[in-house]
TrEMBL record:
It comes from the Bacteria. One of its GO terms (molecular function) is rRNA (guanine-N2-)-methyltransferase activity. This is RNA methyltransferase. Keywords: Methyltransferase, RNA-binding, Transferase. InterPro entries: RlmKL-like_Mtase, RlmL_1st, SAM-dependent_MTases_sf, THUMP_dom.
Length: 435
């Protein structure tokens, strides 16, 4: 069904990525240019934690399929001032949910609130759930079952101090679940945070990109998909596919185009200047499997200690890293043998494994990593994501910028270091950059 009336949508995203998401939406709107819905993707206000937009179904489907940064796409159903749970119940009970889904679909209701005066948000959530179920029973004689794990349909309620907004989810599983990252380590980075960081870093395809602690390969897989034009949602299903109304034929056209693009990407023979390394052979195996599922050709992947890295290419580029935080790791080689990292080898490019060194990830590690950047990565820009605000001090580098970002609930900083020749801002006690 086509949608003559534009809808209001809200796309939540990791806090700190609102501006990159709005910029991404403007590009997705461009994709729709020339189609009947071209006029119907209007990027709206950025608010903490998301971006509003307005459009038809094509806009919502394209946002789901192509956005790398949004966590979900929510269709706004109703909004009204409230004082208590009864007002919220009444608002939810008035909505014609039966237009969107039937009692045969399973349901989940979530509620988030900022400064709400209500005593129990759990009770408010139950009232929304009751209202939706009561509404469907009154029109169809049956209530939907609740399924919190794998619901067909999700309703979201958002409360401010005075206003309740109801949304119907169009995404299903959160959008950072692309479907390709089945192998991951203990602390993987959310895919949409990785994609947002690439945009904040100003990385564009063609510029060398290096992640020297790549783990399961999130940064490099996202970057390679961007370079090859592979849509992040090409292999997954979306919540709107379970709704009674959405533009089925426009969706089929979009999906076929995305699958074709992924197929073409798989036959790409050009070497992408995207590089990953990690000290753990196990992690590199996971990264390889993830990259294959993400539809990108094999990339340069090496087992290296981050303290011993050298630029993988002659042209300076962008280095991104999400170092381990507050953990001790055991390193496994490609055949599963346990190795532990020793102190940094000063020999550039050496694969530093061998003698046991229990506290490999202490200040010494970050100091040596900082030295490697200063001494060997002149001309590069490095972006390091960490919850540890003291990290630049430990690396003995002065950041050029720091951006607060959230990895799930964990507040982090994205530190930027400009490793420009002769102007690396070194902290006292650090080794001066060479060259
Ligand atoms: C927080 S994880 C990175 C997660 C990654 N961004 C992902 O999405 O999977 C940190 C990574 O640093 C690696 N690591 C730890 N010590 C290292 C070292 N000395 N040199 C290189 N990599 C190291 C770990 O093996 C782990 O994969």
């Amino acid at each position: 069904m086509s949608s003559p009336t534009p809808f209001d949508f809200f796309a939540p995203c990791p806090r700190g990525l609102e501006a990159p998401l709005a910029a991404e939406f403007a590009e997705i709107a461009q994709r729709l240019a020339g189609t009947a819905d071209a006029q119907r993707f209007e990027v709206g206000a950025q608010v903490p934690g998301g971006v509003h937009f307005r459009g038809g179904w094509a806009a919502a489907m394209a946002a789901n399929l192509h956005s790398r940064i949004a966590s979900r796409v929510l269709l706004k159903i109703a909004e009204r001032a409230y004082r208590g749970e009864q007002d919220i119940y009444a608002l939810a009970a008035e909505q014609p949910w039966e237009r969107w889904f039937s009692a045969n679909e399973t349901l989940r209701v979530d509620l988030t609130a900022i400064k709400s005066p209500l005593r129990s948000l759990e009770f408010a959530t139950l009232r929304v759930k009751d209202a939706v179920c009561d509404r469907l029973r009154s029109v169809s004689g049956a209530r939907p079952s609740i399924d919190t794990a794998q619901p067909d349909v999700r309703v979201f309620a958002f409360l401010t101090a005075t206003v309740c907004t109801l949304y119907l989810d169009t995404s299903g599983e959160p959008l950072f679940k692309r479907g390709w990252r089945l192998d991951k380590g203990a602390a993987p980075l959310r895919e949409n945070l990785a994609a947002g960081i690439l945009r904040l870093a100003g990385w564009t395809p063609g510029t060398p990109l290096y992640d020297p602690m790549c783990g399961s390969g999130t940064f490099i897989a996202e970057a390679a998909q961007i370079a090859l034009g592979v849509a992040p949602g090409v292999e997954r299903r979306f919540g709107f596919e379970k709704l009674k109304q959405y533009d089925v034929s426009a969706w089929q056209t979009m999906k076929v185009a995305a699958l074709d693009a992924k197929r073409r990407a798989g036959t790409n023979k050009t070497d992408l200047p995207i590089f990953g390394s990690d000290i753990s052979g196990d992690m590199l195996e996971k990264a390889r499997a993830n990259l294959a599922r993400a539809g990108v050709p094999s990339l340069w992947l090496k087992q290296l200690d981050a303290r011993a890295i050298v630029p993988p290419t002659g042209e300076p580029g962008i280095l991104v890293a999400n170092p381990p935080y507050g953990e001790r790791i055991v390193v496994r080689g490609p055949r599963g043998e346990v190795r532990e990292p020793r102190h940094a080898s000063r020999e550039a490019g050496a694969e530093a494994f061998g003698r046991a060194q229990p506290d490999a990830l202490d200040g010494e590690f970050f100091r040596a990593f900082g030295d490697a950047l200063k001494q060997r990565f002149t001309g590069w820009r490095a972006f390091v994501l960490t919850p540890d605000r003291a990290l630049p001090g430990q690396m003995r580098l002065r950041e050029s910028a720091k951006t607060p970002l959230f990895n799930g609930a964990l507040e982090c900083r994205l530190f930027r270091f400009d490793l420009v020749s002769g102007s690396v801002k070194a902290r006292p006690g650090s080794q001066e950059p060479q060259g």
